[in-house]
Structures are given as C-alpha cells and as structure tokens.
Amino acid sequence: MKSFKDLFEQYQWDTIKGRLEQVTLPDVERSLQKKNRTIEDFLNFLSPIAAQKLEAMAKMTQQLTRKRFGKTIQLYAPLYLSNECQNICTYCGFSLGNSIRRKTLTDTELMTEASVLKSMEVNHVLLVSGEANKTVGIDYFLNAVQLLKPHFANISIEVQPLSEEEYRRLHHAGVNAVLVYQETYHQEVYKEYHPKGKKSNFGFRLETPDRIGKAGIHKIGLGVLLGLEDWRVDSFFNALHIDYLQKQYWKSRFSVSFPRLRPAEGIIEPNFIMEDKDLLQLICAYRIWNEDLEISISTRENEKFRDHIISLGATAMSAASKTNPGGYAVDKESLEQFETSDERSMDEIKSIIRKAGYDPVMKDWDAIYSGI
Ligand code: SF4
Q1: Would you state the pLDDT for residue 370?
Q2: What distance in Å separates the CA atoms of residue 149 and residue 164, rounded to the nearest whole number?
Q3: Residue 255 above 60 pLDDT?
Q4: Calpha distance 3→207 (Å, rounded)
Q5: Among the ranges given (40-49, 59-68, 92-101), the one the predictor scored with the smallest mean pLDDT
C-alpha cells in the first residue's frame, strides 16, 4: 500500500453510515469486553445505539487513560503566525474571500508574542498559520522554529500541507509534532467546502500524514472539523486513518483533536449539530479503541465540558488561547480564526486541573530525548 488513499478507496461513505445504524447493543457489549480492539470495535462504540452504554464507556475511558497516562494533563498554547490564506474554506474567518486585514508576524513581533507565552509559563507551543505558501512558506517556518527553539521545550506546527522533504527539514529544525486535519472525509462535499486554492485537492491533503510519517516526525495529529458532515462517519474514517498510520509509521506517536465548528467572521452555520454528550461518546470511543492515542481538547469547547473532560480521557489541553496573529500582545485586534469559548487564564486552568486531582504538565518533552 503506497498511502492511506489506497485503503480509503476501499470504503464507501454510505456503507459505513448504514453499518453504524445496524450496530446492536450486544455488538457494543462484546467490543467492550475484548482485550485487543480493532477499528470494527471503534465503529461499534461510535454507533447511535452505543449512546445507551455511555456511562460504562466513560468509566472505562477514565480507567484506561489513568493507566496509560497517569493523572496528568499537558498544557499548551497556540501561537498564530499569520492570517494570510490563499484558500477559500467556507467555514473559516481567514478564507481568501473575506476582506479582512491580513497580518504576518515579523521576527520582532514573533518574539514579543513568545515572551507573553513564556510569562504564562507556556513551554509547549503550537505554531498556526493560514495557507499562503509564498509569504508564509517553509523558509518562514524554519526561521520561526529557529527563533523559538531556545525558549520552548516543545514546538508543534499546524500549517498548510508540505512536501516530505519540507517536513524532514522541520523535523531536523526541532519540530516535535505536525497537526493536519482532513476537515471531512466526505470526498464529494469536500469540494463544496473548499472551492478554491490548493486545499481543494482532497487527495493531496489525504496523503499528507503519510508524508509526515515518512519524514520521521515524532508526533502526528489528526482530526475532522465536527459540524461539517455526519460526525460518526467522518470520525470512523479519521480513526481508520490513524489505524493505518500507526501500523505504517510505528515510531511516531499519534494524537486526535475534536474541533467543533465555532462562530467566525463570514462563515457558514454547522450542517450537523454535535451535542456535548455526542462529543463525550466520541472521546470514549477513541480511548477504549486505542489506549495509546493522545486526546487533545482546545478552547473551542466550553468551560463546563472542559472541566468534566479532565478526568474523562483528555491528555492535553490548550489554554488562554488567542486565535489571531499578534493576539497576545502585538495586534490584539487582528481577526481571529474562530471565537474561543473557554477564555480562562492559564493559572485558572491549572488550578481547575489540580482541583480535579490531576497534575498540569507544562513540559514533558525535551529534544535531548530524540537527539534533535
Ligand atoms: S481553514 Fe485554513 S486553509 Fe482554510 S481558509 Fe482557514 S486558514 Fe485558510
């Protein structure tokens, strides 16, 4: 198999949708009792009928997460580099068609933003940008990583899909993790959400995690934009993708995020509403299926949900996030990619984690462990 695309093409969206509806409670119970669970078990946990087993699933999720990750939550913060973008995505404030003031951080501005994060004791930083290859391409990222590396223990990146060689250069520069979301695995409607720009190439995006894996990046993060299409079917394909990647690139670690569509300048309404209890079921499904998977919860989620999820499967959380370039200090009024929901400070989040009996972790990784 050359890439995930070969496996993906063996599956049909409507068939998976039909299978999810046919799952029975005994199917779910059988999957819960198994020792080694497969993607078929994940499908059972994801099914509408499995919602009836949510309490048992939540209990198991808590036990499995504590066994594998201890009572810890790793904290990180995003650092938006630029809101320039050459794509039209109908759900995003940075979309090319939106007439907003565009901003890309200079070196000095980048370091000003970094110093605010350091004053909040942030040690894991996630660099985010729109997709504008000419102005914010590989050279810009390499320069940013070089500037930030002495100040942060862990640098992750969530930018446009790059080539394998470019990922290799980022790896050598010290990038620890790369996040790339397919947004939706529904190939036909993907084009409607992404009518213009490089992102409209579904296949190129689909093969991106393969390129990241081949480049030897330590951690690969996947996810779908929940709200675009049927979250159950989309999440099945996302898990299938992770399953494939774990077998193929077994030296890497994997994480999953759960971005739910949030309000932003000039964007569409969610097509599918995902309730909090649905998101909890999805998180439980991932954890029970895959004990090693890191589960990341962003500030898109509301305070109540985030407080509860600390002891129910989360392993990492962003906090005090600004989703606009310069949002921490340099240009607080630049346009944000989406509205955050949980606006509490880093200290408040730490204290909530401690109150739940967990340890907030600001640094659990050092480049010395990987020799980079
Ligand atoms: S989702 Fe990404 S690629 Fe699409 S418009 Fe927003 S920043 Fe650009």
Answers
A1: 52
A2: 22
A3: yes
A4: 6
A5: 92-101
Atom index in ligand 1 nearest the CA of residue 85 equals 8
Supply the DSSP string of 109-149, one letter for each residue.
HHHHHHHHHHHTT--EEEEEE---TTTSSHHHHHHHHHHHG
Tokens of 177: 């993790």
Quote the pTM value.
0.95
Q: Is the CB of 199 under 6 A from ligand 1?
A: yes
Tokens of 119: 């004053």
Rounded to the nearest integer, the mean pLDDT of the chain is: 94
Please give the C-alpha separations between residue 189 and each of 13, 176, 228, 237, in angstroms, as whole numbers: 11, 32, 9, 15
85 CA distance to ligand 1 middle (Å): 6
Buried/exposed 261-292: b ≥16 CB within 10 Å, e otherwise:
bbebbebeebeeebeeebbbbbbbbbbbbbee
Residue nearest to atom 1 of ligand 1 (CA): 92
* Residue 83 Cα: closest atom of ligand 1: 7
User: What's the farthest any 2 CA atoms get from each other in the chain?
Assistant: 60
Q: For residue 281, what are the contacts with CB-CB under 8 A and spacing of at least 6?
A: 45, 46, 50, 51, 54, 57
Closest of 299, 317, 225 to residue 267, by C-alpha: 225
Pocket mutation for ligand 1, best pick of 94, 135, 198, 204 (most atoms within 8 Å of C-beta):
94
Q: Is the pLDDT of residue 285 over 90?
A: yes
Cα–ligand 1 centroid distance for 194 (angstroms): 9
Mutate to test the pocket of ligand 1, among 84, 91, 131 (most ligand atoms within 8 A of CB): 131
**Cα dihedral sign, 66-126-344-123:** positive
pLDDT digits (tens, 9 = 90+) for 158-179: 999 999 999 999 999 999 999 9
pLDDT at 239: 98
Does the beta carbon of 182 sit less than 6 angstroms from any atom of ligand 1? no
Q: Is 85 in the pocket of ligand 1 (CB under 6 A)?
A: yes
